[in-house]
Amino acid sequence: xxxxxxAACSAALCSAALLPLAGAATAHxxxxxxLTADQISQRSHEALLGAKSLHITAKGDLRSPGSPTSFxxxxxxxxxxRGSVSLGPxxxxxxxxRGADVWMKPDAAFWKNEVPGGGSALASLVGNRYLKGTTDxxxxxxxxxxxxxxxxxxxxxxxxxxxxxxxTKGTPTTLDGTAVIPVTATEQGxxxxxxxxxxxxxxPVRITIARGSAVPDATVRFDGFDQPVPTATPSPAxxxxxxxxxxxxx
Length: 250
Hints:
Elements: H1 2-15, H2 37-50, E1 53-60, E2 69-76, E3 81-86, E4 92-98, E5 101-106, H3 108-114, H4 120-126, E6 130-134, H5 138-141, H6 149-156, E7 168-169, E8 173-175, E9 178-187, E10 190-197, E11 204-210, E12 218-223, E13 239-241, H7 242-249
Parallel strand pairs: 6-13
Antiparallel strand pairs: 1-2, 1-12, 2-3, 3-4, 4-5, 5-6, 7-9, 8-9, 9-10, 10-11, 11-12
Helix pairs in contact: 1-6
Organism: Streptomyces mauvecolor
Signal peptide: 1-29
Keywords: Signal
């Protein structure tokens, strides 16, 4: 499942999109619009680190150029997660996690490309159902790194180690009905644009990453801050227990 571990790291890579945007100064003004670009970036960084849960969607070349990745995940600090991760032609997988319990449903391409030996025996037994187990199982444990909000935030908290260059505050605008203030920076030939909520907590709303093109190479969206992860889990009829499968395929 090494390919999936790469996908899990792409969540950290998405969070690292904020790295060049972390300013050193912290401001306490109530009006985000009155802050400097450095202050807006810093306050957005702190708001994201303080979130107890969030919904994040991302798409684009998040691992490396020419390697499309996307994910749509709702996750919290209690080990709960729900959503999906796609590695483009390498396949995709749906994930549900409640504490230590994990359900995952790979598609055919994921079984073929990301599971050792092609996963054909497991795929035929599981069919269109979820593979169920716990984080004690190494196969399922490899899927859960992407669901760890604390890990996600720890990666983000290294942002001060990378200096900002060309940090600029843009003109206030709206994004899907939300008032935002854009802040841009350039790092290693890539332009990062961070759209920060202009009212209420200065949460990041969107990050785009472009490498010299008007069309972003990657886009990351944040919402659902501090809202609970859906509690529904797949029914027994929709699942296959991984411990029984390991016995049948050994």
